[in-house]
């Protein structure tokens, strides 16, 4: 049996993360969490850094060659990435069940060319992708130099391209070492490959690569933005289900969390990913194409208005049970003991959540990722931010500090707890399929759901998402224990 595993990338103009991460320049005060994994100043044990991400100056010439190459800069970049990935795995194959074996064939093609060569035994015309193919007499990594490579590099940076190839090489490792077979679900295969890519990219971020550099701040944010963009969109999943296709790759939460497991962990943890592990990691958040209590799989966007905010206050009071619930204000006002963090702010002085309703509506406005050149946004982008300000009120009610990086981590965690509870059917406001991805995207683009009372962001999107995910999978008490 032969098979092909692909890092699917739509033929679209993709939003530049640089234009999205408008809050990343916020000043961050110093502080420390209780473990290295959850330290707000570190990512996977590495310090949070900004700076150059991409090809180093004067890298070594590529060692390998590609069939059908045009000899241009694009293929040279890909070959350097392949060299780097192979160097990493050859140096670290003691962690694998079998010795590392480089892929046999490398193939470059141009998806715009009707007369382009076959890739993976099939026509490559209009196949905008990068793929690993295996089977009898086939062991090949192929890439589209016409569209996918230049688009990935332009909109997400060179390291997003390297991440694509690291993902494909993850598939090669799965099959060459026997970690996975064709009988295993594609859903598992894809997330394992995301995890293997995370293992390799941490090595790059740690400064061990001769060819590439990756900052753990903005550089890693770009890589995560790429993972979010190539997730299984709800509309794509629905169309696939209508055709009887079940080749799901995973939601944004699935894919980012799998990558984080690898970046902060090791190969053993990647190999341990299976359907049971994935389901545990997903928690109780609504899944793609799982019918809700009414048999509906459509995304449900909630109108953000005064009634919605009142309902949300009631829901969050039930979720967190503060002894002194905060009040709600939609009137513009100052706060004497905290900076405002529009469109939603918490003022400790009078225990009030202050909402700029037009601004919150704008944050909740659903956007067409394909046509508007943005990452995912919708009602839960706004609701998750509102939830985070309520979570600050809950922390203040308990006498905890709310103006430190640890408080920002705790806030992200408690927001995740609240979101998981809001996924339970039958409430006044219930999350629907796709809502979790809106929260994950928001943590990367605006970051407010994991910020302190002054709206000061955690410096790395990776850490914001990690804090949120720890809450989705945990409890309120665990958030307080992890981030005292």
UniProtKB/TrEMBL annotation:
<feature type="region of interest" description="Disordered">
    <location>
        <begin position="42"/>
        <end position="72"/>
    </location>
</feature>
<dbReference type="InterPro" id="IPR007343">
    <property type="entry name" value="Uncharacterised_pept_Zn_put"/>
</dbReference>
<keyword id="KW-0732">Signal</keyword>
<dbReference type="Pfam" id="PF04228">
    <property type="entry name" value="Zn_peptidase"/>
</dbReference>
<protein>
    <submittedName>
        <fullName>Peptidase</fullName>
    </submittedName>
</protein>
<feature type="signal peptide">
    <location>
        <begin position="1"/>
        <end position="22"/>
    </location>
</feature>
């Amino acid at each position: 049996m032969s098979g092909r595993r692909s890092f699917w990338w739509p033929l679209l103009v993709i939003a530049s993360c640089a234009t999205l991460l408008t809050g990343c320049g916020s000043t961050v005060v110093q502080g420390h969490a209780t473990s290295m994994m959850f330290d707000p100043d570190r990512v996977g044990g590495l310090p949070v850094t900004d700076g150059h991400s991409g090809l180093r100056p004067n890298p070594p010439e590529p060692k390998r060659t590609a069939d059908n190459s045009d000899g241009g800069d694009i293929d040279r970049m890909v070959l350097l990435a392949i060299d780097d990935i192979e160097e990493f795995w050859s140096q670290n194959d003691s962690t694998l069940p079998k010795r590392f074996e480089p892929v046999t064939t490398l193939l470059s093609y141009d998806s715009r060319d009707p007369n382009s060569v076959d890739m993976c035994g099939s026509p490559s015309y209009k196949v905008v992708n990068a793929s690993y193919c295996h089977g009898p007499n086939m062991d090949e990594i192929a890439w589209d130099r016409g569209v996918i490579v230049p688009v990935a590099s332009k909109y997400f940076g060179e390291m997003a391209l390297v991440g694509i190839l690291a993902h494909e090489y993850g598939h090669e490792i799965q099959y060459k070492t026997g970690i996975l077979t064709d009988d295993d679900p594609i859903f598992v295969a894809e997330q394992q490959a995301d995890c293997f890519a995370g293992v390799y990219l941490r090595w790059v971020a740690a400064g061990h690569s001769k060819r590439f550099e990756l900052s753990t701040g903005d550089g890693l944010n770009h890589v995560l933005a790429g993972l979010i963009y190539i997730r299984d969109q709800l509309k794509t999943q629905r169309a696939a289900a209508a055709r009887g296709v079940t080749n799901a790759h995973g939601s944004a939460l699935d894919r980012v969390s799998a990558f984080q497991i690898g970046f902060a962990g090791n190969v053993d943890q990647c190999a341990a990913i299976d359907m049971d592990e994935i389901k545990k990691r997903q928690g109780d958040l609504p899944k793609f194409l799982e019918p809700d209590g009414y048999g509906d799989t459509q995304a449900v966007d909630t109108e953000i208005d005064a009634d919605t905010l009142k309902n949300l206050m009631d829901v969050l009071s039930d979720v967190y049970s503060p002894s002194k619930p905060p009040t709600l204000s939609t009137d513009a006002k100052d706060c004497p003991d905290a900076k405002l963090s529009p469109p939603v702010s918490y003022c400790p002085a009078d225990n009030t959540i202050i909402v700029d309703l037009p601004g919150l509506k704008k944050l909740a406005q659903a956007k067409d990722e394909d046509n508007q050149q943005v990452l995912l946004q919708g009602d839960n982008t706004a609701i998750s931010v509102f939830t985070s300000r309520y979570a600050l009120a809950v922390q203040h009610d308990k006498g905890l500090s709310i103006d430190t990086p640890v408080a920002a981590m705790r806030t992200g965690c408690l927001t995740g707890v609240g979101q998981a509870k809001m996924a339970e059917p039958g409430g006044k406001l219930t999350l629907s399929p796709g809502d979790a991805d809106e929260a994950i995207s928001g943590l990367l683009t605006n970051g407010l759901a994991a910020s302190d009372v002054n709206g000061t962001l955690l410096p790395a999107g990776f850490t914001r998402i990690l804090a949120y995910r720890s809450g989705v999978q945990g409890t309120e008490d665990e958030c307080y224990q992890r981030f005292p």
